Amino acid sequence: MSWLHDLNFFAKLALAFAVMTAAWLAPGWQAGIAFALICVLLLWLLRVPGVAGYTKGAALLTAMVMASWLLNLTLQGLPLSQALPVAAAMAARLVATTAAFYFVMETSTPGAILAASSAARLPSLVTLVLSLTFGVIPMLRADFERIADAQRARGMEIDDVGLPSRLRFALARGVPLLVQAIRMAHAISFSLSLYGYDLAQKRTTWRQVGLMVEPRLKIKDQADAK
């Protein structure tokens, strides 16, 4: 749905924070799980790019959070019957939160973020942080998938294996991903220096930004008006 990409970045960001707040204020684990499922279902209904991969990641996140919280609460002496609802509620909150911000990341291009931030007259440092945060994470995820494809090409079975093996293989991708992230950060900083980026320099926007983002300025209409 193209209108999702044209929606103002800050409107989507406000929606994500509202969803996160609602998830963490859910009255019980039953309501939390239902809310998280609704969030994931909405990603599918809105046809957000890469939602299948996100669903797999959310399932893995749920398993890891459940296991860690159950272990922690059990070691503290809490019975399993009481620890299970707490772990389920925490996992549901995290799934709903990640679903909301995944929606923002997948439907917001770095250019749209820059345009919205410039139109809002945000400080250049804030604009840079927002664009890098929401623009770099999808690129790192793509690198993560490329590393997985390289593992498959070398004969490593990472799909039809148990959860412990899948976690071990996922951690094995962490080192090359960290190296790639450092290289990307160096390339970005070098490019900023090369093009004379200065925190004291005011920026302008090349798009018309309201509730929806227009892809380009109507230069012809402005020329006719003059």
Automatic annotation (TrEMBL):
Places the protein is found: Membrane
This protein's UniProt keywords: Cell membrane, Membrane, Transmembrane, Transmembrane helix
Transmembrane parts of this sequence: 7-25, 31-46, 58-78, 84-105, 112-137
Keyword Transmembrane recorded: yes
A GO CC annotation given for this chain: plasma membrane
Pfam families found in the cross-reference section: CbiQ
Family indicated by similarity: Belongs to the CbiQ family.
Protein name: ABC transporter substrate-binding protein
Species of provenance: Xaviernesmea oryzae
Highest classification ranks of the organism: Bacteria, Pseudomonadati, Pseudomonadota, Alphaproteobacteria, Hyphomicrobiales
